[in-house]
Amino acid sequence: MWTSLLSGATKWIDLLGYAYPFVLELLPDTMQRLTDKAAAGARIRLAFADPDSAHVVERDALEQIGGTLPGRIRNALNFCEPLHSEAGVEVGLHAVHLYNSVFRFDNQMIVTPHLYRARGY
Predict the structure, then answer these.
(1) What are phi and psi of 50, to 5 degrees?
(2) Which one of 74, 89, 96, 99 is CB 3.0 to 4.6 Å from 44, fit for a cystine?
(3) Distance separating alpha carbons of residues 58 and 61, to the nearest angstrom
């Protein structure tokens, strides 16, 4: 389902979460696909949690992942490095507590709740 939604989107791809590396790593050529979609006119917005924010430390403790969430976010941001210079692509950081992650592909959306002591992936 995830690869189908990512591959099929032509107008909008909006991702809001903490790190969501699984979405970015679903296909070996995800970054090139996103670049091509942006070049064809799609608007792509990727919002990651600021790895240096206090709420990331809190979320890491809630999920009991041993201080690894900031690194997971930094890894995802590094993965997205090729997108930073692409027109039509926005990669940014947020500093808000999230209770859901939101993934929109054109007119379809997946909203995943964050569960107490349940790891995000």
Answers:
(1) -65, 115
(2) 89
(3) 5
